[in-house]
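Fold it.
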Amino acid sequence: MERPRSLTITAALVALQGAAAAIWGIVELIRALTGHPHNRQDAVVLGVVVLVLAVGVFAAAAGLWRMRRWAQAPTYLVQFFSIVVGMGQLTTLPFMILPLIAVGVATLVFVSLPPSREALGGI
């Protein structure tokens, strides 16, 4: 079966989220090691945890690209948390949070379209 366009878009959006998480994790590690955090150990742990999250998100994107059924659950979870976190922080950083929410909603729409669901083995 050929991968539908909606699933290709979904995989790209999830990979974008993985890249954003990886950049965030790297920046946190650099800030922890070169800056003056209140607690250096906690700052390093945050950077490492975010990098591990990024690896998981990249794995989900790869699974979507290869049309693997297992990739649906992590994709839905990442979008759910992106939207919930975004809505909770909307008033603090709207210029960063609005794209987070928009990508989360768009990804949910594309992964839920019938061609994507069919390519992933249905729900």
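DSSP finds five helices and no strands in the chain.
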